[in-house]
Amino acid sequence: MKKDSKYKLASVYAEALYEAAEEQKALAKVHADVVSLNKEMDIEKNFSKYFSNPLWGVDSKKAALKEISKKLNLSKETQNCLDIIAENNRFPEFELILQKFIKLYYAKQGITEVEVDSALKLSEAQHKKVLSMLEQKLGKKIVVNFQVDPEILGGLRVKYGSTMIDDSVLGKLNRLEIMMKGGQ
């Protein structure tokens, strides 16, 4: 399958889940379900591979998914989407479907995704301070994904939309190097 059609297919499933959740007034719950499923997929790296196995029947997959739904307390809308994914054998695109749903949810709710890279893991107080400062700067609701990147040496690198603010030591050193080369 072409990469473009894979993304288009994932978008179709994500939009269908969003519309079903919106119609049933269960958007917040379905969003929480998708976040929960994403966390489970981070823990169990082979989740999609297990469910993509052609030797495993659709009914068996649905039964396993029902057990997972019970364990995670997933909504009826999320369970219905999982059943459709199983029936249509779309598990190779499952992770992408979840990602597309989250992006769609954030876009429709006016939430901006922000990535913050730091050299070391930030404390809870630092998380809150960065979150507060970014919400104030952007003037809108945000969701921050904090990541540790030891290569930046210190400081922070913040990315949102097409904007990047690089206040890392590595970024400063790179800019200094460029200035010094230009001055020769």
Topology at a glance:
Blueprint: H1 3-23, H2 27-43, H3 47-52, H4 58-72, H5 76-87, H6 94-109, E1 112-118, H7 124-138, E2 142-148, E3 155-160, E4 163-168, H8 169-182
Describe the structure.
By secondary structure, this protein is of the alpha+beta class. The chain has two domains: 3-108, Orthogonal Bundle (Peroxidase, domain 1), CATH 1.10.520.20; 111-182, no CATH class. The chain is built from eight helices and four strands, in the order H-H-H-H-H-H-E-H-E-E-E-H. The protein has helices at 3-23, 27-43, 47-52, 58-72, 76-87, 94-109, 124-138, 169-182, and strands spanning 112-118, 142-148, 155-160, 163-168. The protein has a four-stranded mixed β-sheet with strand order 2-1-3-4. Strand 3 (155-160) and strand 4 form a beta hairpin. It is elongated. The chain starts with a helix and ends with a helix.
Provide a quick synopsis of the model:
This protein has helices at 3-23, 27-43, 47-52, 58-72, 76-87, 94-109, 124-138, 169-182, and strands spanning 112-118, 142-148, 155-160, 163-168. The chain is α+β, with helices and mostly antiparallel strands and 184 residues long. Strand 1, helix 7 (124-138) and strand 2 form a beta-alpha-beta unit.
Tally the structural domains. Answer: 2
Q: Biggest sheet: strands, sense, closure?
A: 4 strands, mixed
Separation, N- and C-terminal Cα atoms: 52 Å
Q: Helix amount, in percent? A: 55-70%
In N-to-C order, the SSE pattern is HHHHHHEHEEEH
CATH second-level architecture of the largest domain: Orthogonal Bundle
Strand order of the largest sheet: 2-1-3-4
